[in-house]
Amino acid sequence: MMGLAGIINIFLLMLFSNNPLFLVTRITQLLGIGSLPNISLVVTETGCGILSIASNGNLCLPVINQSIYITEPLILQSRIGKDMRIQPVKNEFSIQEFKDRTTAIVLPASEVLGWKEER
After folding, report:
1. Is the pLDDT of residue 111 over 90?
2. Which residue range forms the structural domain that includes residue 54?
3. Closest Cα partner for 25 from 17, 15, 36?
4. d(CA 86, CA 35)
5. CB atoms closer than 10 angstroms to residue 37
6. How far apart are the C-alpha atoms of 78 and 65, rounded to whole Å?
7. Phi, psi (5° rounding) for residue 73?
8. Residues 54 and 16 in one domain
9. The pLDDT of residue 100
10. Is pLDDT at 93 greater than 70 in this prediction?
11. Which of 8, 46, 74, 78 might form a disulfide with 34, Cβ 3.0–4.6 angstroms?
């Protein structure tokens, strides 16, 4: 009975709050599986190339004879599964169509070696 009351209270909290996804976002942050702001990824050369092309060179710039790269700070939206979904902190895309909306980049998890959190 107490478990049912707890579930109902969580549902009511999500229903009456102005941001119903706050609870889900906060839980993913606490577990470290998503919604992590100010993260710099350590990526492979291929990962840096993917990020460079996807962000017009704003997140990572490939350098000759270097195999590991650190990206600019970004938002790690999700690291669940085989892919990581990331979002630039600033939407710096040059095409006007992309400036008006939030853009996310999907990167294979195999290209990410680690990350550091900047507080």
Report:
1. yes
2. 33-117
3. 36
4. 9
5. 15
6. 30
7. -60, 140
8. no
9. 53
10. no
11. 78
Matching residue, tokens 């049912």: 4
Count of domains for the chain: 2
CB 61 within 8 A of CB 43: no
Q: Do residue 68 and residue 89 come from a single domain?
A: yes
**pLDDT class for 91, splitting at 50, 70, 90?**
low
Residue type, 12: L
* HEC sequence for the chain: CHHHHHHHHHHHHHHHCCCCCHHHHHHHHHHCCEEEEEEEEEEEHHHHHHHHHHCCCCCCCCCCCCCEEECCCEEEEECCCCEEEEEECCCCCCCHHHHCCCCCEEEEHHHEEEEEECC
pTM of the model: 0.69
Shared domain check, 24 and 37: no
Tell how strand 74-78 and strand 34-44 pair up.
Answer: antiparallel
Rounded Cα–Cα distance for residues 112 and 68 (Å): 10
Q: Cα separations (Å) of 11 from 4, 21, 30, 66?
A: 11, 11, 20, 50
